[in-house]
Write a structure and sequence with these properties.
Elements lengths: L13 E4 L5 E2 L5 E5 L3 E8 L10 E9 L2 E6 L5 H10 L7 E8 L6 E17 L11 E7 L2 E4 L1
Antiparallel strand pairs: 1-2, 1-7, 3-6, 4-5, 6-9, 7-8, 8-9, 8-10
Length: 150
């Protein structure tokens, strides 16, 4: 359940469950969550017997962008293996991904996003470089069919 307050919540206290029960957070190497755009699809419609020339706006569907997760490379192959299942033709291992925004002392969930029937559509790594000083980052991009918030 969302918890409203006058001061904004900082965006650095969050957890992600990719539908496996394993919880990722900034403390475990998760760096960033890039939320998708959610858009209602609207089409112009004008009935033939309409007395006015202006069309009506009719909702015809919902479109979502993709959810992007980024973490530091830690040697785990779990993101690659999930992506690889779909690359090899699997269609049944979609997951429900849950993201929780936490309060400052991490004692309460203040907002929840649920992405249903999610599947990986892009998996990539940042560049390797001998210059040093940068984190080596793995990204996973997810398509999904429904978004709900609590």
């Amino acid at each position: 359940m969302a918890i409203y307050r006058d001061a904004p919540y900082p965006p650095c206290h969050f957890t992600v469950d990719l539908g496996t029960g394993e919880i990722w957070s900034p403390n475990t190497g998760l760096l960033e969550v890039v939320f998708p755009e959610a858009r209602l699809v609207v089409t112009d419609y004008r009935p033939g017997n309409s007395k006015t020339p202006e069309p009506q706006k009719v909702q015809t569907g919902v479109e979502y962008g993709t959810l992007i997760l980024r973490r530091t490379v830690n040697g785990s192959l779990d993101w690659y293996q999930w992506w690889n299942e779909f690359r090899n033709g699997s269609t049944g291992n979609t997951r429900s991904v849950t993201i929780h925004l936490m309060n400052e002392d991490l004692s309460n969930v203040v907002l929840t996003w649920k992405f249903f029937r999610a599947r990986p559509v892009n998996h990539l790594f940042s560049n390797l470089t001998g210059l040093g000083g940068e984190l080596f980052v793995e990204s996973l991009e997810l398509a999904f069919e429904r978004l709900e918030m609590e």
